[in-house]
């Protein structure tokens, strides 16, 4: 009898020391995490279901890029320019913010997920004053291209 009590006591201690399960959505640990709330787009609805776009936008943009670069196909449904035109977020001055600003639509979730956005190394991160996300080529762009071409020739 004493042996059974001892085994039950050991089991009770072991269970009480067992690590807790993964935190659930209502747990206090997760209550301190700020979930991103990206700004709503300007249109009535997105080009596709919101949940679908959240999970698949990177694949759609990659596919669109490949189709544009390799085939010359410039369809507009999943174009980055269209996303930027619709999802531009205005700053305190009333002008759309660039990707350098944490309020930028893309950065809202990408910063949270620790994912680097490299689209805007080449593409405009905000609509132009005329209302579209077209990148203007400046002197620094021309100089960088000339430098790159000189390197290729060597």
Can you tell me about this structure?
The structure is a single chain. By secondary structure, this protein is an all-alpha fold. The chain has a domain of 87 residues. It is built from 6 helices and no strands.
Keywords summarizing the entry:
single chain; 154 residues; mainly alpha; 48% helix; 0% strand; elongated
Topology:
Elements (H helix, E strand, L loop, with lengths): L1 H16 L10 H4 L18 H22 L8 H8 L17 H9 L25 H15 L1
The computed structural class is mainly alpha
Helix content: 40-55%
Q: Which spans of ≥5 residues are poorly predicted at pLDDT below 50? A: none
How many E-type strands? 0
In N-to-C order, the SSE pattern is HHHHHH
Oligomeric form of this entry?
A: single chain
Let me know the average pLDDT.
Answer: 81
Largest sheet: none
Number of helices: 6
**Cα end-to-end separation:** 89 Å
Strand content: under 5%
Shape: elongated
Query: Compute the gyration radius: what is it?
Result: 25 Å
The gist of it:
This protein is 48% helix and 0% strand.
